[in-house]
Amino acid sequence: MSDFAGMEDLLQDFLVEANDLLSDVDNKLVDLERTPDDRGLLNDIFRGFHTIKGGAGFLNATELVTLCHLTENLFDRLRNGELVVTHEVMDVILSATAAVRDMFHSLERGIQPAPADAELIRHLKLAIAGTLAAEEAHAGGGNLVERVQAVGAADKVDWTALYQAITGKAPAAAKAAAPQAAAHHDDDDYTPRSPEEIMAHPFGRRVADKPGYGGPTGRREGERQRDTSIRLDTARLDQVLNLSGEIGLTKNRLTSLRSDILNGATDTETLQALDAAVSQLDLLVSDLQNAVMKTRMQPIGRLFQKYPRIARDLARGLGKDVELMLAGEETEIDKTMIEDLADPIIHLIRNAVDHGVESPEERRAAGKPEKSIVRLEARQEGDHIVLLVADDGRGMNAERLRAKALEKGLISDEEANTMDERQSFNLIFLPGFSTKAEVSDVSGRGVGMDVVKTNIQKLNGTIDIKSVQGKGTTFIISLPLTLAILPVLVVCLGDQPLAVPLSMVREILPVTAQDVQEVGGRATMVVRGEVLPVFPLSYLLGWPQERVPAYGVLMQTAELAFILAIDSFAGREDAVIKSLDDFRPKGVAGVTTLSNGQIVLILDMKELLGALGESRGVSRTIFLPKLPAAA
Amino acid sequence: MSDVKMKFLVVDDFSTMRRIVRNLLKELGFVNVDEAEDGAVALQKLNSQHFDFVVTDWNMPNMDGMQLLQAIRSNPQLKHLPVLMITAEAKRENIIAAAQAGASGYIVKPFTAATLSEKLTKIFEKMQKAAA
Fold this sequence. Notes:
The complex is a heterodimer. Chain A is of the alpha+beta class. Chain A folds into 4 domains: 8-207, Four Helix Bundle (Hemerythrin (Met), subunit A) (Up-down Bundle); 234-295; 299-480, Histidine kinase-like ATPase, C-terminal domain (Heat Shock Protein 90); 485-623, CATH 2.40.50.180. Chain A has helices at residues 8-34, 39-58, 62-79, 87-108, 118-129, 132-137, 142-154, 159-167, 171-186, 195-200, 234-262, 268-295, 301-304, 307-318, 335-356, 360-365, 398-407, 413-418, 421-425, 449-458, 537-541, 605-610, and strands spanning 297-299, 322-327, 332-334, 372-381, 384-391, 462-468, 472-480, 485-493, 496-501, 505-510, 516-519, 522-527, 530-536, 551-556, 561-566, 568-576, 588-593, 599-603. In chain A, helix 3 (62-79) packs parallel to helix 5 (118-129) and helix 5 crosses helix 7. The longest helix of chain A has 29 residues, at 234-262. Chain A is globular, with a radius of gyration of 30 Å. By secondary structure, chain B is α/β, with parallel strands linked by helices. The relative contact order of chain B is 0.16. The A-B interface holds A 10, 13-14, 17-18, 21, 44, 46-47, 50-51, 53-55, 57-58, 60, 69, 155, 157-158, 162, 165-169, 173, 177, 180-181, 184-185 and B 13-17, 19-20, 57, 59-61, 87-92, 95-96, 98-99, 103, 105-106, 108-111, 115, 118, 122, 126.
């Protein structure tokens, strides 16, 4: 399955370190654009690629070696002043960096990277030869190719002589070493590939972005096998150590108190000491939980770092002038979430630059500055992290969105007429919705926004849109601080408690037989004018219906709002999720222990609803008594 | 000479690479290995502790492998230390520069334990000859 059997540890180490290096390179590249002849910067970037190349060699990642080698050669000439950083060269460098990152993604999945885009390799070679601009001017003269090859040839090395020079040894050893060296040198030779071969390695959007891609369904399972290690400030680790030490001391205190009490000590003093020790333990344990949780927290800035580049590339490609402003980079968020947020945020930035921001002409006509600002902001609000992607573009037109959705058959006439502004904005999250008449290269393929929403929901988060026409659009993502703790609502069927994610719960209402109507063979209930299907939890679980449900929990998933009919509820809890790794019954996301020690299943509502199949309805006769005949 | 108790200093700014080299040395039976993340740190260690062998990367921040090599060769206490240069660079001028600066050997990434062993053996042979 993996191309790296036996090297997993090495691969993980490499990826952690190389990703950091590449982010650093990325930042330096943005600086380089401002100060193109800064030798120090050029040197640092050169070394970055060089180091990545060296590590990649040991992983046999030939394509990554080739790409880094060429980029490094380019920087070698730049730092030696043989070439200058022009816009064209910069673009090639940026594409090369992006391609390196793509290769990392491939490595993260345990797959040897496919060769870089042939066009990119060609441009790199032209840049190294210093003929990039010329080539761009008169597209591809034959003599240029020869010149590039000549440059390659000039690089050839007499290996025998070199080995002799350095080892002073017999040519036999040199010969033995030669094939390896020659293989290394072959990296420089660009072998043309047929269009079919190039098509076989599509460049750009990843498979996982496509609709219908069977991506992860559960929260953690199916998560890409990647970067499972973490870099940690030792101060945080010390804190954990310190707290566990103090807990040890408190435990000793309790042990001694226990023996006192077992020996009959019941005086107030002993009991007070017991009370104090338990309170102390209570405090320490919750501190420890927080401290351990903190070890998973990473500043979101590490994720933000790469976006200014992406925004800049996109804007340039679209002929727009966009600056991405970052704020709140120091905000900390659970590490696994950082990784899962990367793609959704890219989509939102793409969306803002492509759809949100107007063309320079349009902006001038509207009396706005030509340069537009897209803000990417993170902040902590209570036990939530809020992320904003805000543009100062044209804003969203609710009417146009409705018309588009209607035209595409995504909503009915009736739905279109009753939608308010917010509901209309949310139409863009429907699969298959894309408002641009022209499908652009950047976004607008109608995939993306629905994927964004699904991904955010997988993290138990929500996404909301605020938009003012002519002023701009803001996407607001709200996420729990961590995935390890899930706020749940504990509901009961008979005596059996079961937990549902609180993030999906809108409200709890009493359910009476009279409220539930049968519409088209489905039990429904009207809540403030909204007709909602009613699903009895017992039916979803396939349990016998023992009582008439007394309560309904109004829940909201990406696709649907519904009422979950239950017998009673016990309240909210912060569940520490234990996953059922080897044994996962359908519809169960994990288990948790309540404060009273009882073990409770946490339900996976999506999976349970899936069991309903296409009908998406339950007849009321299944769970409710017949209504008395209307008088 | 190729005593398994020999103490190696592996110098590289990329910790993954230090680990690779350390593992390869371990495969060859050399377990007495210390690490440094650049030439400056390496030189400090060389001045304060005893080492028998230096394996260094070329490209590093602060003080690169070439500067380290020059520093070693110009220090009367250290100048006899064997220094094996490791780099991803296979250019002739680099190899020659390394040879001129007094590198005992030069090895191009990526390499296997066998290649490393071969280089080490050669360096040991040379040292024995010089000592004889």
